[in-house]
Amino acid sequence: MSGQDRSYGAGSGYTMNAPQYTTNVQSTPAQSAPTPSVGTPGDLIKDTTTAGFTADVIQESRNQPVLVDFWAPWCGPCKQLTPVLEKAVLAARGAVKLVKMNIDDHPSVAGQLGIQSIPAVIAFKNGQPVDGFMGAVPESQIDAFIKKLGGDSAKAELEEALAAATEARAAGDTETASQIYQMILQQDPESVDALAGLGEILFDAKDVEGLKKLLESVPPAKSDAAPIAALRARLALSEEAESLGDASALEQRLAENPKDHQARFDLALIQNAHGEREAAADNLLAIFKADRTWNDDGARAQLLKLFEAWGPTDDATLSARRKLSSILFS
């Protein structure tokens, strides 16, 4: 986005005047990322198994980021994503590696990590999951994802506008942020980031009807996008928490009986509704660690719902995933 096309500041907010404003991310190889070796397809792309996951992903990610592509032979979108993903990995010239896991043959790792739909790509660094996305996303988005892992700070035009909206929200200026998101959506009604950002503002403002109308307006092609699914999940969790009453009564029950898993479970829902994500996750993890079979694995199932609501890159999601992995693989 050129300087003459946009202006934003502390006083005047953000304006977008160029009639040809574009939101397409430019697709270029990740030249700024570390390139330990050019590599060949055999070096950079491989299939793995449950037994090989630790060596191929956990250990290898200590050398460079590893993308894990969870797929299945019957999955049409997987067949669309995989060749585009392979092309992007090869273009990155060793900045990342790609490991593919057939969840039909090897379902346990995907289940343990909370993968609920495919295709799903999870990035590992230094032995830990750090980022991810779901669905057959376009090549430009994959390139940007790989660049982000490699530390490339170049911003496309859409990213600049979204960054301005983020700054406005951080400053408490939700009105300006809303205007930016709406301007982006005027040019690109399918911008998932703008839809999600506007939805989050509506959610935080407790404008339930406005949020529901926004979700109804999402184009069908984007209705299953992870940020949109996260908004729906947050709305559902919030409505569920409203029926649980006061947290203090649940805290009293736990003080009297720390093994009251139902009280701890309900408290986690209320904590999440109040934005206390780490506390909510820790309570559900405590139930899971104490009794994995409680309520038909209900604590872990609820934790996966929270991951969906928070999004795969949220700090609380990443922290809770690491803790869950430690319990599962200990």
Automatic annotation (TrEMBL):
Q: Which GO terms describe its biological process?
A: cell redox homeostasis; response to stress
The UniProt record lists the keyword Transferase:
no
- A GO molecular function held by the record: protein-disulfide reductase activity
Query: Domain of life here?
Result: Bacteria
For bias type Polar residues, the affected ranges are 14-38
**Domain Thioredoxin intervals:** 22-151
Q: Name one GO cellular component term.
A: cytosol
Q: Which Gene3D superfamilies match?
A: Glutaredoxin (3.40.30.10), Tetratricopeptide repeat domain (1.25.40.10)
Q: Which Pfam families match?
A: Thioredoxin, TPR_19, TPR_20
Cite the entry's keywords alphabetically: Disulfide bond, Electron transport, Redox-active center, Transport
Q: Does the keyword Cell inner membrane apply?
A: no
Which residues lie in coiled coils? none
Region Disordered: start and end of each range?
A: 1-44
Query: Entry's InterPro entries?
Result: Thioredoxin, Thioredoxin-like_sf, Thioredoxin_CS, Thioredoxin_domain, TPR-like_helical_dom_sf
| Database matches in PANTHER family | GEO12009P1
Family (UniProt)? Belongs to the thioredoxin family.
Task: From the Swiss-Prot or TrEMBL record, give the protein name.
Answer: Thioredoxin
Biological source species: Mesorhizobium denitrificans
